[in-house]
Amino acid sequence: MQQTINSHVQTGPLPARRSRRFKPGSFFTYLILSVWALTTIYPMFWIINNSFKLSNDVMNHSFTLALDPVMTNYTAAFDKINVGKSYMNSIIMSGSTVLLVLFLGGLAAYVLARFPFKGKRLIFSVLYASLLIPAFATVVPVYELLIKWKLVNTYLGLILPQTAGNLTFAILVMAGYMATIPKELEEAAFMDGCNRWTMFIRMFLPMSKPAFASTSIFVFLWSYNDLFSALIFVNKDTVRPIVSLLNEISSQYGTDFGLMATAVALTVIPVLIVYLFISRFIEKGLTEGAIKG
Amino acid sequence: MKKSLLVSALLLLTLTVSACGGNNGNGGNNGGNKATPTPSASAEATAAPTPTPAADPVSLRVFSTFGGTDPAAAAFQALLDDFTKANPNVKITNDAMSANDDSFRTKVNTDMNSGNEPDLLFYFTGADADGFVKAGKVVPLNDLLDADAAWKGGFSPSALESVRQADGNIYGVPLTGYYEGLFVNKALFQKYNVELPTDYDKLKTAVQTFAKNGVIPMAEPFDQSHYLIEHSILAAAGPDGQKKGLLNGIDPNWEKGLAAVKELGDLGAFPKDASTIDLSMASNYFSQGLAAMIIEGSWSIGGWADDVKNNTTVLPFPAIPGGAGSGNDVVGGFGSGFYLSKATYDNAAKKDTAIKLMKFLTSPDAIQKIATANGGTPAADVKIDGLPQVALDGFSMVAKSASINSPIDSKVSPETFTTLRANIQKIVKGQTTPAKALEEAQKIEVANKK
Amino acid sequence: MKGDKKYILMFLLPAAAVMSIFLYYPFFKSVYFSFYRTTGFFDKKFVGLDNYKRLFSDQMLGDSTLHTLEMMVYVLVFQVGIALLLAVLVDHIKGGKGFFRTVFFFPVVISGTAISLLFVLFYNYQFGLLNHILDSLGFEKVLWLDDSKALKAVSVPTVWHYVGFYFVLFLTAMSKIPSDFYEAAKLEGITSAKKTFLLTIPLILSDIKVVVTLAITGTLKVFEFVWVISRGQSGTEVIGTYMYKKAMVDQNFGYGSTIAIYIVVFGVVLSLIANRLLKREEITY
């Protein structure tokens, strides 16, 4: 764990983002943070560790190290589902959902954040209300629509409903962020003869990077982990996403916990790797967003 | 004026959508779904074959539960492959979903109701199928069966009998069936020198002995207490009393069944964590030798650890004193079968091929292959090899039984059964009485069927 | 600005269209269902307000509402609280920022079902981790999911799962606070604790509002944890699982839809109350 207590006070001429004094209190800060970090790392480890055990061992000794790992679960999982194809499907569907949400949601958020117009409050109320619509309440009518438009078991058949379901959250978060972008910038840009469209593309998009970054992560994850919709809208093996593996594994023939752990690991690990990889960029986005003007 | 522009735009959108999406499947307020889909309503994106003479390419969609980790998934796919090999003009889409998903029923019902019927559907018979049977979405198969003696003769008569719907017709032809019973771990009974629970008193003695020795007597979960309810009520009310359901009042013997559950609970029959485990965890307790008895179905045998499996036998749930049960009534039958959708039957291009495929999938040979894979009761008179002793015990239990009954949940609406399940924990804890629980369930039943 | 109306419409319409077709229209269709008694989808009978009458006399629904509210208290206090605390702490440290930011987000990546499975194996009476520890220390095994503890036990993973989510939202919000604010504070010689309470928190209040709303609406939709860990037994039934049972298990779409509408109305009321309590002028820098 990182216990490097940095008691160095930075007072350089460089435009440090935020310089702080460090106190003995920072030891406790790191202690608290490390304890929480433990709670978040261990389950990951637990799942991966147990994916190399037989079901009985998971049941009875799930907390010992898998010293002689068995690959049975992995071979079984790969037999049950075309893992590579499913990853592709997941990436295509969840990726498109994210892009669509960012594009449609970004435009709408921009309007809601920066334009004074009547009826805005109403729109916000409607948005907050739609956060509450449970998936179970819309699944059947949506499914009927998809059947009618021949979209069942196509990529669009999952992308469109998921986009609709995630837009609310995206608009709220992005609008919240855009509302804080200084007005002067906008006025200056307007003086320069930008119209609204170019202003959006040239100014608001880059300025809102942090909001776009966090929104895209969440939307991707929700879409990726959304088993309920995947089961109903895209359950054919050619289009089903990787999350269906979880379902394939838990069948009516008792729960094989080793296999379950493997399914979870197969679902989680790629996302985790991608997340580790892009988190640096997100951080960059966050810090960039902080330096204004 | 201006402010309402946006709102009206939104409204307009919603209206257009509902206008083009609102006239199929919700026919105004008469409730009936009269919008008949076009005959060739195939949801496949593949080019629908134009109705011309046979041997043209035909694509069929089969929707079943033989997918994922179902033990018969591979055997089923092999059968489909055999068929396409023999009939190269046929393309089969094998659509499958696990039956233990609650969304499975939703999907089937929605498909059947919105012109997206699979050509062949493998689904439950009985109350589950009532909706689309009544709506005329599937074809009665009686005439087809009668016209093909070889096909009909392949089934055991009792199997065919047990898939009849309430209206007397057969819509789904059976493949493999199941039975349920009280599975007992003989090794544990020997170890503690207890007699097998062949009658209710012996069952109580066994429960007390095991409870004293820290072995779970009966691995039964409260929430998923399907089998516990089915068996206690059948053992108390007997086949006739059980068949009555709840619609026309409560048979007093039903109460005795639930009272027995309470009595067993008071003797410490159920696991301490019965309120939170599910069936698979309960089954696991039995498999690990932590529990001496479990009420389960034939499908669960395959999942148990070998040493427990080889020491297990299965008995009918003993009769509850004072009731009408014989102590030799079992729950079982052929709770599912292949349906042929009406849309396919009316589609000249597909009809014959679909029927041919259905006959192929329910031939004795196919039944034998599937039954070998999943250990179910074959719907034809075929020999299944390589089964463990307990499975053979099960078959002989069914053969010797006084009656074979479909479970209660096929006699009452799903919601009624859930209400009963939700009350089991309360009954055992004494927070409600069997009588009250049954009254509550009966109210729901009446509301559902009125 | 002139010509804005055109843009307002143009920018809002695409999102509005998608949401109308795939969210609002299906939901209104559910509203329509709520006046019917349905079995599966084939038998629809108009029953007027029967479902709504049942709603108000439904003991189970009352119980699940109370359980949901109790869980909401845990979520607001612990989930949002811990997330804010962690965000403030991470915002303060020098080294390891990126590490903690990455690691705290892990649980959010795992699907709820998988986390529930993990906790099933923690709480299991026979061979769960907790009882395993107790047993080896010579204590009596504890039934973690009995009536007195079950709801709290289910709330633990619920809270834990999404702390990282709100943490990232808070951190994003803090990142947009212009540094000159802090520069000024530094010149004043303000302590970090003071800075946090006087500057950071007020400046991200609008985001706290969004998070509180998300937390409230999220709690109303809690489903997997209860479904997998306790099956809604022992006083853990929440509105989400109750609706699922009615709509999906019992195939009673009419009543299921009625409960969905109840959830939405209930949530709107709660959000309005929360927003009223947190009412303040939004700060634009």
From TrEMBL, chain A:
Example of a GO cellular component annotation carried by this entry: plasma membrane
Pfam families: BPD_transp_1
Membrane topology: Multi-pass membrane protein
Location of the protein in the cell: Cell membrane
Species the sequence originates in: Paenibacillus protaetiae
GO biological process, alphabetically ordered: transmembrane transport
Membrane-spanning segments: 27-48, 91-113, 122-143, 155-179, 200-224, 257-278
Family under the similarity heading: Belongs to the binding-protein-dependent transport system permease family.
Descriptive protein name: Carbohydrate ABC transporter permease
ABC transmembrane type-1 domain mapped to chain residues: 87-278
Lineage, broadest ranks: Bacteria, Bacillati, Bacillota, Bacilli, Bacillales
Main location, first listed in the record: membrane
Keyword annotations of the record: Cell membrane, Membrane, Transmembrane, Transmembrane helix, Transport
Automatic annotation (TrEMBL), chain B:
Compartment(s) where it occurs, according to its Swiss-Prot or TrEMBL record: Cell envelope
Origin: domain of life: Bacteria
Main location: other
Location of the region described as Disordered in the Swiss-Prot/TrEMBL record: 22-54
InterPro entries, sorted: Bact_solute-bd_prot1, SBP
Protein known as: Extracellular solute-binding protein
Keywords: Signal, Transport
Organism: Paenibacillus protaetiae
SUPFAM superfamilies the UniProt entry points to: Periplasmic binding protein-like II
Compositional bias (Low complexity): 32-54
TrEMBL record, chain C:
CC annotations in GO: plasma membrane
Main localization (coarse): membrane
Domain ABC transmembrane type-1 as annotated: residue spans: 65-274
InterPro entries from the UniProt entry: ABC_transporter_permease, MetI-like, MetI-like_sf
Keyword annotations of the record: Cell membrane, Membrane, Transmembrane, Transmembrane helix, Transport
GO term, biological process aspect, one: transmembrane transport
Signal peptide span: none
UniProt cross-references to SUPFAM superfamilies, sorted A to Z: MetI-like
Residues spanning the membrane: 7-27, 71-90, 102-125, 159-177, 197-217, 253-274
Protein's membrane topology: Multi-pass membrane protein
PROSITE patterns: ABC_TM1
Cellular compartment(s): Cell membrane
Coiled coil: none
Keyword Transport: yes
Protein name stated in the entry: Sugar ABC transporter permease
Organism name: Paenibacillus protaetiae
